[in-house]
User: Which sequence fits this backbone?
């Protein structure tokens, strides 16, 4: 991520701080060189060529003060104070020179160092060394520019520095043109020193105003530097050629060279202004485009909510890892258990806050490792240099960190996490992310809130699960794999058939019979339960229609198992009514068996109430397995209750459990509900159900689940006295039966 963003940043050119140091250093060296030359009475040091003007010591002193003010350094403390003193001194010195026509040159002469050397030079050559007014004005512009910079007016500072450069251009162009009015304007060292300071002042504000665009490493900045340099050079050369009045045929020469110089200065200033304005505009567009690119990269590489790496970024980092890092890498996959309850109870905004807190805890626990958000509430940690034991310790630390309570609307809320761990030494070259996902899947299947390390057997199990899921899709589309078996429910009093429960079966073409608890649980996890339920309801209605054709009105009530997920996925009652209408079957011959979890969903309860109005019966299956409360029974749209096998097993082992069993049966009867005991496998259990007053029983003692043909033979077989009624028991109190 860091390298990708670095590649898109604009590198500024030239390096402002280095160029600024070079400019101030050059101006300081030139000023000291000139002052040393005057002190040593060495004219060649302050006048490099005999025909050129010399640099006045007062000018050198001003240059030195400005150079000290512009030296890069700390903006607080003693360096800042010294810089202020230096620029104030330079401003005072320049003001003294500019006020000479009003005050006389007495003060100026008194402040000029090495006056003896100047007088000796004048007597020896007959020419006095002076500080021209244009030099003083240029230095004044630099002083004001430095003051504006320190007052944080970068645009004013840059304009003043540019004006100083323009004055240098005028003087230099006039001198190159051989115009006498510019002959003694500026000495070579003066021009070099002022130019260095002006550039240093511009670069001191290179991150502000138009200098930001001109010094940027972007294409507009590079183009602007080429345009400014080439146009200035070409115009200066042209002015020099024309003002020297070289006799080229056909070239009209201006009569006034001085006017030509000022016209040229105006033209170059106009060119500078146009180039600068266009560059600033182009740089803004280029900068906006660069920001958009970085934001796009960040959106692709960073999760917008948590700031963690995205799934795609984690995958790319894994692919780019070195073989050595891959050989000892570890992957942790974290899935929050029950996070959906946060959104449902408190809303998505609070859920997002919890996710941000989870991301913060994961970063702290990962201790520098890569952390990514893989899905809504799934996270991953990739470590390049952890042993298998250290990876397991990290997984446990992550689990403990995420188990700490969260603050949600002023209340303490707890979450758990399932953590899957995969280490390169344990996966034998397999994909770490897939291995961690398989380990996390096992942790979820074991109930969650635990850390599981990958083992090779998990890969085989997950592969079988994936294959079985695809096979289930095929079975739903086929007509000969899924079928129903039927287990009878008989009356305790006389052994007559009360109802028959339809049970799902899957005849796999390769694996054979697949246990119902396996493929039904998988269908619920993979959100195939609605399709599976519709398929099984269709098979049950088809079988009922076949029984109706064979024995009109004499076929038993059919109990249909309906999963809570079916109510959430669609309108089960409407679908079932449509199927019955096609076969012209009555709704009163069907009973919907639901588990108690359905009654926690208001939508499902409303659907069951509508089913009762249409004539369907409703039975609570496996009563007592979960968190059933007796107080709920009067408010549920039920016609019967099927007690879980654990009731009758415990009642046969304990007198207290038997009393509870009898009390529940009596309460259900008081609510005018039929009571069926499930899982009856022995004669003793049947006798107990009879003594406690159960209306019906279901279990292996009566009959095992049978195919339709076997069930037909069972119902028509000779059963004068059912074997489970061989030992008479006290008859139960008569209760209303099924219609």
Assistant:
């Amino acid at each position: 991520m860091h390298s990708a963003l670095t590649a898109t940043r604009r590198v500024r050119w030239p390096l402002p701080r280095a160029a600024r140091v070079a400019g101030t250093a050059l101006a300081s060296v030139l000023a000291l060189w000139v002052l040393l030359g005057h002190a040593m009475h060495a004219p060649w040091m302050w006048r490099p060529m005999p025909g050129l003007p010399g640099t006045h010591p007062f000018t050198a002193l001003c240059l030195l003060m400005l150079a000290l003010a512009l030296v890069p350094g700390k903006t607080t403390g003693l360096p800042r104070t010294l810089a202020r003193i230096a620029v104030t001194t330079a401003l005072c010195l320049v003001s003294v020179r500019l006020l000479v026509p009003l005050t006389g040159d007495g003060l100026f002469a008194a402040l000029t160092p090495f006056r003896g050397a100047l007088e000796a030079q004048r007597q020896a050559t007959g020419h006095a060394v002076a500080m021209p007014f244009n030099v003083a004005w240029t230095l004044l512009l630099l002083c004001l520019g430095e003051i504006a910079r320190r007052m944080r007016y970068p645009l004013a500072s840059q304009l003043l520095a540019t004006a100083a450069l323009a004055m240098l251009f005028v003087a230099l162009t006039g001198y190159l043109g051989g115009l006498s009015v510019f002959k003694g304007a500026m000495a070579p060292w003066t021009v070099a020193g002022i130019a260095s300071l002006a550039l240093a002042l511009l670069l001191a504000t290179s991150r502000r105003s138009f200098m930001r665009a001109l010094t940027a490493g972007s294409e507009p900045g590079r183009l602007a530097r080429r345009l400014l340099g080439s146009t200035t050079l070409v115009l200066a050369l042209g002015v020099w050629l024309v003002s020297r009045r070289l006799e080229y045929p056909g070239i009209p020469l201006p009569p006034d060279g001085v006017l030509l110089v000022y016209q040229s200065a105006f033209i170059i200033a106009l060119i500078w202004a146009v180039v600068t304005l266009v560059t600033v505009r182009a740089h803004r567009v280029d900068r906006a485009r660069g920001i958009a690119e970085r934001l796009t990269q960040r959106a692709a590489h960073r999760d917008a909510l948590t700031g963690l790496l995205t799934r795609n970024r984690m995958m790319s980092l894994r692919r780019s890892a070195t073989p050595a890092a891959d050989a000892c890498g570890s992957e942790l996959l974290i899935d929050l258990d029950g996070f959906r309850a946060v959104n449902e109870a408190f809303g998505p905004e609070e859920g997002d806050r919890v996710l941000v807190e989870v991301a913060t805890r994961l970063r702290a626990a990962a201790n520098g490792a890569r952390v990514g958000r893989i899905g809504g509430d799934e996270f991953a940690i990739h470590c390049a240099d952890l042993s298998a034991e250290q990876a397991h310790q990290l997984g446990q630390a992550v689990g403990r960190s995420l188990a700490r309570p969260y603050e949600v609307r002023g209340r303490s809320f707890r979450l758990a996490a399932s953590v899957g761990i995969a280490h390169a030494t344990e996966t034998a070259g397999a994909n770490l992310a897939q291995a961690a996902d398989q380990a996390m899947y096992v942790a979820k299947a074991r109930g969650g809130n635990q850390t599981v390390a990958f083992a090779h057997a998990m890969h085989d199990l997950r592969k079988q699960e994936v294959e079985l899921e695809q096979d289930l899709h095929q079975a739903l589309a086929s007509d000969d794999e899924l079928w129903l078996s039927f287990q009878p429910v008989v009356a305790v009093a006389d052994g007559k058939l009360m109802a028959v429960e339809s049970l799902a079966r899957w005849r796999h073409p390769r694996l054979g019979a697949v246990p119902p608890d396996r493929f039904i649980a998988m269908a619920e996890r993979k959100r195939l339960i609605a399709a599976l339920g519709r398929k099984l309801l269709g098979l049950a209605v088809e079988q009922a229609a076949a029984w109706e054709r064979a024995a009109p009105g004499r076929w038993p009530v059919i109990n249909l198992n309906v999963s809570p997920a079916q109510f959430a996925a669609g309108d089960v009652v409407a679908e079932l009514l449509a199927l019955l209408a096609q076969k012209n079957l009555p709704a009163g011959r069907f009973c919907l068996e639901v588990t108690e979890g359905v009654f926690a969903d208001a939508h499902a309860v409303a659907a069951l109430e509508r089913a009762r109005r249409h004539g369907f019966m409703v039975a609570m299956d496996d009563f007592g397995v979960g968190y059933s409360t007796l107080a709920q029974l009067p408010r549920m749209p039920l016609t019967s209750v099927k007690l879980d096998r654990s009731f009758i097993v415990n009642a046969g082992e304990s007198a207290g459990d038997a009393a509870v069993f009898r009390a529940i049966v009596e309460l259900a009867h008081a609510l005018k509900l039929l009571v069926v005991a499930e899982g009856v496998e022995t004669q003793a259990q049947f006798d107990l159900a009879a003594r406690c007053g159960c209306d019906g029983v279901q279990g292996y003692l009566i009959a095992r689940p049978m195919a339709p043909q076997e069930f037909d033979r069972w119902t028509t077989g000779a059963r004068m006295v059912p074997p489970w009624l061989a030992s008479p028991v006290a008859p139960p109190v008569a209760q209303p039966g099924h219609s």
Observations:
- Residues 1-14, 728-739 have pLDDT under 50 and may be disordered.
- DSSP finds 31 helices and 16 strands in the chain.
- Residues 257-301 form the longest helix (45 residues).
- The chain has three domains: 11-211, 311-454, 481-717.
